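Suppose you are handed a protein chain with no further information: no name, no annotation, nothing but its sequence. What can you learn? This example shows the usual starting point.
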Amino acid sequence: MRQTCSSFAILLLFSLTMLQCQPQSEGKEENLVQNEEENPVQNEEENPDQNMESAKILVFTKTAGFRHQSIEKGVSTLRNLGEENDFEITHTEEASVFSSTGLQEYDLVIFLSTTRNILDPDQESAFKAYINQGGNFMGIHAASDTEYAWSWYGKLVGAYFESHPSNPNVREADIEVVDESHPSTSHLEELWQRNDEWYNFKSINPDIQVVLNLDETSYVGGTNGSFHPIAWYHEFDGGRSFYTGGGHTEASFDEIDFQKHLLGGIEYCLRRK
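A reasonable first move is to predict its three-dimensional structure. Written in structure tokens, the prediction is:
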């Protein structure tokens, strides 16, 4: 009898234990399911572009010397590139935007065929501070024909315009692709043949990284010799800088390869590539 009672007690204790454990286990499972529903495991790779804000670019076209007819076509081309590649273009010829507050919203400032002295001392200081704080610069064609008295700008753009061939000033030339890995040239073959107004340069910054070099044996009027850079990039004084000497003609901006060249320079300056 004692043995029977003892066995019954053990069985009863075991049953109670199971009853106590079972709801707790079910509760854990319910909590686990709930947590999975609230925090689903992300098996798919996240798209890095989903939360990327559109970059803002200021295109500055003020001229105090020769004015290129291609400026308006260049602005239009840059707008189209922006719509297709997630950056927003703001175009201005008002130098008053060059202030500590005026530049702070832009990821990149492009000088599109600007000429001569276009900024006053306060505006120069604001632009320098913008670059020092990580802002970026891109120059197209006559951007090198700008601010000759401001040596800091000369180093930023990478060189100053000195001359170009005449009669005709636009002619065909061969361009050697020096750096095939840069985003501004990765789409090109080793030799790029095209028509433009080919600048000769002075005060070339020795720290620039050349991506395109003119072959002076392919046309008449070059004065730089075998080292005749026509597009380059570098990091300077806190920011990135890219320059291309192309873009004198309106037709330049219709060329698909030239558009890709510009886009690659922009993407470098925006630190996307």
